[in-house]
């Protein structure tokens, strides 16, 4: 698991939710039997988290660096990554373009401006993947309310 330790989590008053979610995963017996759970914290760099070392004090957030570091750590082993973040990246490459190995699955948990009930969702988004300068093309969005 990789946990965003930036001040933006604390600023949005989501640190307690992140701690509770982290504890819920770490203390789940079924998950502990099936997986070796390792916890890392990241800001502009990444480090292994101890039992009580989770602090939301990092000034920078580099999600792509955390993903790349964890990819090197897992090597060729089958692995899954739970990424807990608010998605606010301040330095580094755009993490949306980060590629993983075929043996690694990433599950993202968004901490932040979310609602407890789904009131609007995008079911499908149809676009033309290729566009040229000054070219118009339709975009189809299917929304559920």
Report on the structure:
The protein has helices at 7-11, 15-26, 29-34, 63-74, and strands spanning 2-4, 40-42, 46-48, 79-85, 104-110, 121-126, 140-144. The protein is α/β, with parallel strands linked by helices and 145 residues long. A hairpin with a 3-residue loop joins strand 2 (40-42) and strand 3 (46-48). The model has no long low-confidence stretch (mean pLDDT 85).
Quick structural overview:
With 145 residues, this protein is an alpha/beta fold. Helix content is 24%, strand content 23%. Strands 3-2-1-4-5 form a five-stranded mixed sheet, with helices on one face. A two-stranded antiparallel ribbon has the order 6-7.
Major sheet, described briefly?
Answer: 5 strands, mixed
Number of strands: 7
N to C succession of SSEs:
EHHHEEHEEEE
Low-confidence parts, pLDDT < 50 over ≥5 residues? none
- Identify the strand order in the major beta sheet: 3-2-1-4-5
Protein structure class:
alpha/beta
The termini sit apart by 33 Å
Q: Report Rg.
A: 18 Å
The total count of helices amounts to: 4
Q: Helicity, in percent? A: 10-25%
Identify the overall geometry.
globular
Which whole number gives the mean pLDDT?
Answer: 85
Note the topology:
Blueprint: E1 2-4, H1 7-11, H2 15-26, H3 29-34, E2 40-42, E3 46-48, H4 63-74, E4 79-85, E5 104-110, E6 121-126, E7 140-144
Parallel strand pairs: 1-2, 1-4, 4-5
Antiparallel strand pairs: 2-3, 6-7
Give the key terms.
single chain, about 140 residues, alpha/beta, five-stranded mixed beta sheet, two-stranded antiparallel sheet, about 25% helix
